[in-house]
Amino acid sequence: MTARQDVQQADVPAICKSCEARQDGLCGAFNARQLAVLAKASSRHEVPAGTELPDDGTYSNLLSGVVKLTRNLSDGRQQIVGFHFAPDFLGRPFEAKKRIRAEALTNVALCSFPKAIIDRMANEMPELGRLLLKHTLNELDEARDWMAALGRKTASEKVASFLLMVARNTDPAHHPASPISFDLPLTRTDIADFLGLTIETVSRELSRLRSDGTIRIVNKRQISLASMAQLEERCGD
Amino acid sequence: MTARQDVQQADVPAICKSCEARQDGLCGAFNARQLAVLAKASSRHEVPAGTELPDDGTYSNLLSGVVKLTRNLSDGRQQIVGFHFAPDFLGRPFEAKKRIRAEALTNVALCSFPKAIIDRMANEMPELGRLLLKHTLNELDEARDWMAALGRKTASEKVASFLLMVARNTDPAHHPASPISFDLPLTRTDIADFLGLTIETVSRELSRLRSDGTIRIVNKRQISLASMAQLEERCGD
DNA sequence: GAGTCGCCTTGATCGAGATCAAGGTTTTGC
DNA sequence: GCAAAACCTTGATCTCGATCAAGGCGACTC
């Protein structure tokens, strides 16, 4: 990986070192000239956990950390409607009708680009538009999966599905039959707000999965699984 | 409107008469030459209620009728994850990971185009790509609104929100304070599968809204409202 | 190291919505 | 027009997950 980073640095101008090294987010779609333009306009940010990410019209590659998207009802009830894990691409090309807040769940590193530059490039570069569309369609698929979970799964199926989602995002290439452990980047309140449950129910279902032997709870935030396949059986789909 | 239709027919070659007259779906984005190409490749279909719309790689303008999108869990539990009302644009540019079925709820009229033609045009026409992206982002916003409803609203808020959604799609320009009546294009089972409830609960909540005086139930499928504003108060958001 | 605060767990009880059950109404087919 | 089927409503009861309540466990502060 260090070798690859060196090659990248020799081949193309820097956007920001982390972006470039990992070809994060959209960066893989650009040629050397475009990367040079982006490099000048980009800026790197470190954002501490708990910060709201303002919708200031910029686009960003999420280099590390986890971001939650929330929708609130008028009386304060909250629903988490999505997560972004590194190396997702953040930002919205057009205005949203309803307000969705984005907040850093963990410390987050971003590489940001002004909207105008990306939009201009998208106009002269159909490949970029297709990539944005593909990203958005994936988000739509995920949202619909969670609609099915919210509407039709039991509490324990919801919790199992959630753990599986985090595990998959932690290590997308992980073999389903082998053990894995990972940190939950969320409080019980966040998990509840995502699954449409209360914190007590989340806690009880986690305890039940532990006494089942399906999961081990190391440290409140750290979970380890004998296998993802075992959880998949409890997901209902 | 008839006047406008005449102008359109004089200006540009026909895609199919209905598309053209209403500038449905994506047709408003094309110039005369492109419309001519599309016209040759397009075909009009009438699909009876209850038919599954196969994901055959074509794109379609939905000229009339309502389409539901469903996700099923392994044991048959069903969640409706979205609707398409005329004049939506149907079709998916890339492969979906999980299977979502599309089914006509009412009789449906479609104007279909081969995928290859649209994809080629999207490559040489950034405007079209942006339009597709915009459509997809709207779908994403809607999906997230329903996530919030599924996760955090009570049964009566869900039913009120649903009625409001149908009312708005029936007549998008309707004044919120004036009376409106519309047909529900769904059975109670479909409503329940959309709201994550049982048919009995849907039926009871509709009865309650009727005895409240918020709605009138004319004919099981036909609802009339004194005002949309009254329902909005019961939506929770 | 005592006290406070934030977060989590567990138990007891409650209630919204599910399930079970019966009957009514509309549609369909002959 | 009648019978059957599909769909809808309403009532009785049950259950899953919410709510209420108490206490545990770390992480800070002083």
Give an account of the 3D structure.
2 copies of one chain form a homodimer. With about 240 residues, chain A is of the alpha+beta class. Chain A folds into 2 domains: about 1-150, Sandwich (Jelly Rolls); about 155-230, Orthogonal Bundle (Arc Repressor Mutant, subunit A), CATH 1.10.10. Chain A has helices spanning about 1-10, 15-20, 30-40, 115-125, 125-150, 155-170, 190-195, 200-210, 230, and strands spanning about 45, 50-55, 60-65, 65-70, 80-85, 90, 100-105, 110-115, 180-185, 215, 220-225. At the A-B interface, strand 4, strand 5, helix 5 and helix 7 of A face strand 4, strand 5, helix 5 and helix 7 of B. The structure holds a DNA duplex (30 and 30 nucleotides).
Number of helices of chain A: 9
Low-confidence stretches of chain A: 1-13
Structural class category of chain A: alpha+beta
Largest beta-sheet details of chain A:
4 strands, antiparallel
- Oligomer designation: homodimer
Shape of chain A: globular
Mean pLDDT of chain A: 87
**What value does the Rg of chain A take, in angstroms?**
19 Å
Instruction: Tell me the β content of chain A.
Output: 15-25%
Distance between the termini of chain A: 36 Å
- CATH class (first level) name of the largest domain in chain A: Mainly Beta
Q: Report the CATH architecture of the largest domain in chain A.
A: Sandwich
Instruction: Indicate the percent of residues in helices of chain A.
Output: 40-55%
